[in-house]
Design goal:
mainly alpha, 3 helices, 64% helix
């Protein structure tokens, strides 16, 4: 489930980037291509569509991000086993005899 949500988030991000790049801050962007009166959608309708698409994608991204928190896999079993392995190593190091330090052999000249 987490992988599905992650893929959906990536798709929404790519779509949002494309929609924002199509827009122009002055209202010219893609809407300027539909300026002629014989087109199906006028300039204002295209700008409204792009604005609604941006807001819809932004809200969708927010909701998917919030939902992804609840579906993050929580590997409690793996964490417990790792902690037990660490504790076992600590216990072994406490009970293991300390070896005497030996100086390296002297070199002959």
């Amino acid at each position: 489930m987490y992988i599905l949500i992650s893929v959906l988030i990536l798709i929404v991000c790519v779509l949002m980037v494309l929609v924002v790049l199509v827009q122009n801050s002055k209202g010219g962007g893609l809407a300027s291509n539909f300026a002629s009166s014989n087109q199906f959608m006028g300039v204002r309708k295209t700008a409204d569509f792009l604005e609604k698409a941006t807001w819809t994608l932004a809200v969708t991204l927010l909701l998917l991000s919030l939902f992804s928190v609840f579906v993050i896999p929580k590997n409690q079993v793996a964490t417990d086993s790792m902690q037990s392995e660490i504790q076992k190593q600590i216990d072994e190091s406490k009970t293991a005899p300390i070896k005497d330090f030996q100086a390296p052999p002297a070199q002959k000249k």
